[in-house]
Write a structure and sequence with these properties.
5-stranded antiparallel β-sheet; 15% helix; 8-stranded mixed β-sheet; Rossmann fold
Length: 642
């Protein structure tokens, strides 16, 4: 029997504590002898990243506490560990950013010198040699290069190449004579303009190199299929697809497509651990294809593609390949983790993470929608409220939270994960908007945001929300908007410049673009050149676009959540908005979490933030969520608790 209760007040068995543990963050995986190892963030251990393996007695840590494998290269890290076939674990320790080696039965020993100005990331064993991206401060600038780190014998770090502002994804040819890598320079980002380069290694370093791609696209992930066949990702057709070029005595032959598709194999290279395909034995390829949602395919030697029946359809990453097997991480409806895929047998086995713990009656009926917006079609995924025991009153429409992903060059894959079900099971709908600028729909859609950040993203989320209300799915008077980082910018801009939303939740959101350009780290220091315009010429445009400039436009309550160690978007950004809201008497709450950076990792933070968001929505949108602590809002002339 189904009972009737107001939306937002449905009792749910899914707690914030459950949600914090239900979606483990997998940070790479590897075949190590007969075992499978993977990195995993542990919220209950202050968010440290350990390396685990599945042994006879179950899952156990390879990297013991308090060691924490986490890189700070580009601030977003990635590739913080690698392991060889003999079971030697090499990892970047968060506290000192040195590379350490943990051999079976021994304690970790450093492989790189102690130097507070140097960080390492993108660790990868290539043809048995440990390669990494090194980032160091020198003479007032940040520099990067690809290095080889000695694992056996005398400690040494040998620089192979450093001829550009940024480098990533190195791969040695099978005979060890050539190195391929990705390079790009300011002001471009790796989804704007890059080059795939190949250089011959002479006397331990690359003495000269040639560009394999034209430099007017965002080429990614070169991988040697043989000593003479280089596979890589490129987008001359407007979609990231697999290409290859043959290398001979006269140089490289023409570029040829491996398997053309109206989908993207590739994405935004925020993390140095991102990999969208792997080469299997016999030259076959296992690859991710994205067209809204993700799918995994096996591409044969003739370019034919066979879809793999994988539970995960979002954030897929091909972490490792060996023979006919691949390790693929990602998120699916109600589940996340790591899967072992056998391309020979078609067998798929979940290695890490729990199989879907959420029974089907609790899963929202997710659907993809496309809404007409002022700049073109807007893509989104809708997750309606869902409860096997309750429904809303016939004369009431559901409140909805409009989710805005970060980046802004990013993507939501339409998966109802634990945090989504936490809301939908309480009678709160969720819509994930892939506004113009998002990946997963081709280069033209991605470039819709160029020069238009703060305009296109705001217009698109408003259009998606309005379309949902017009269709009768959502209560147009109870629409909230939530986002983090660049998504937080869109939240604040939408609240300041429109009346589309009754409430906003900003996690470490950008409030002042000019201050961000001055304060942010080197990787993103020129990002806004493309998103708004180059400085100082575009100074007035930065001022005009910034939410902080339009504080008089704020009327809706706001919840601000921030980490005190955030070096990407410092606390000063959230605090400037807090002060402006306080001065105008707008109801708001501000929570600053100790020990958190750009993205929350600690269990206690995730739990508190998750509960605070639902309590805030209830206080503002007019419902009482059960089993959630109340929240105190400042402003409107006096403190109020709800």
């Amino acid at each position: 029997m189904v009972d009737t209760l107001p939306y937002g007040s449905w009792p749910s068995p899914f707690t914030a504590s459950w949600a914090s543990k239900a979606s483990p963050r997998v940070d790479g995986a590897a075949f190590v002898g007969d075992e499978i190892w993977w990195g995993q963030s542990v919220p209950e251990e202050a968010g440290r990243t350990t390396v685990r393996r599945r042994a006879d007695a179950g899952v156990e840590d390879v990297l013991p506490a308090p060691w924490n494998a986490r890189s700070r290269v580009h601030e977003y890290g990635g590739g913080s560990w690698a392991a060889d076939a003999g079971g030697t674990l090499c990892f970047v320790e968060k506290s000192d950013q040195r590379v350490w080696a943990l051999r079976p039965g021994a304690k970790p020993v450093p492989l790189t010198p102690e130097d507070p100005a140097t960080s390492y990331g993108g660790l990868r064993f290539s043809r048995g040699r440990l390669l990494a991206v090194r980032e160091w401060q020198g003479e007032g600038t940040v520099r990067r290069g690809i290095v080889e780190i000695a694992v056996e014998g005398a400690a040494s770090v040998r620089q192979l190449v450093a001829d550009s502002d940024f480098v990533a994804q190195p791969d040695l040819s099978p005979d060890g004579t050539h190195l391929a890598w990705v390079a790009w320079d300011h002001p471009h980002m790796p989804w704007d303009r890059t080059e795939v380069r190949v250089g011959r290694i002479d006397d331990g370093r690359v003495r000269s190199w040639a560009a394999v791609t034209a430099g007017d696209t965002a080429a990614l992930q070169p991988t040697w299929r043989t000593d003479t066949d280089l596979v890589y990702l490129d987008e001359p057709t407007g979609r990231w697809n697999l290409w290859h070029r043959e290398h001979g005595a006269e140089g490289f032959g023409p570029a040829e497509p491996v398997a053309a598709a109206d989908a993207d194999t590739g994405g935004a290279l925020w993390s140095l651990g991102a990999r969208w395909y792997g080469v299997l034995e016999g030259g076959r390829i296992v690859a991710v294809r994205t067209n809204g949602a993700d799918e995994l395919v096996i591409i044969d030697e003739h370019g034919g593609a066979t879809r793999v029946d994988l539970p995960a359809t979002s954030e897929l990453n091909v972490d490792a390949v060996e023979g006919s097997r691949a390790l693929v991480s990602g998120k699916g409806a109600g589940t996340s983790g790591l899967w072992l895929v056998d391309a020979g047998t078609g067998r798929v086995v979940q290695v890490a993470g729990d199989p879907a713990e959420i029974d089907a009656p609790w899963m929202p009926r997710t659907r993809a929608i496309t809404t007409d917006g002022p700049h073109g079609p807007v893509h989104a995924f809708v997750h309606p409220p869902q409860h096997p025991g309750f429904t809303g009153p016939a004369d009431e429409r559901a409140p909805y939270v409009v989710m805005v992903h970060g980046g802004p060059t990013g993507h939501d894959g339409g998966v109802a994960d634990a945090k989504t079900v936490y809301l939908t099971s309480r009678g709160i709908g969720v819509v994930q908007v892939n506004y113009g600028g998002s990946t997963g729909y081709g280069r033209d859609y991605r470039e819709r945001l160029r020069g238009q950040w703060g305009v296109v993203d705001v217009d698109d989320v408003v259009a998606a929300a309005a379309g949902l209300a017009a269709a009768g799915d959502a209560d147009g008077e109870r629409l909230a908007i939530k986002g983090g980082s660049a998504g937080g910018w869109t939240v604040l801009a939408a609240l300041a410049r429109t009346d589309a939303f009754a409430a906003g939740i900003s996690r470490y959101g950008v409030a002042d673009a000019r201050t961000l350009a001055e304060d942010t780290h080197d990787f993103e220091s020129r990002y806004l050149d493309g998103m708004i315009g180059p400085l100082p010429e575009a100074e007035e445009l930065y001022r005009e676009r910034s939410p902080l400039t339009h504080v008089d436009g704020f009327t809706a309550p706001v919840l601000l959540l921030q980490g005190d160690e955030d070096r990407v978007v410092p606390p000063s950004q959230s605090e400037a908005i807090r002060d402006a809201l306080a001065a105008r008497g707008i109801p708001h709450a501000y929570r600053l979490y100790a020990g958190e950076g750009h993205g929350f990792r600690r269990a206690e933070t995730i739990i508190d933030a998750t509960e605070a968001e639902v309590a805030f929505l209830g206080a503002v949108l007019g419902f009482t969520p059960p089993d959630v602590p109340p929240i105190t809002l400042d402003g409107a002339g006096a403190d109020q608790t709800a």
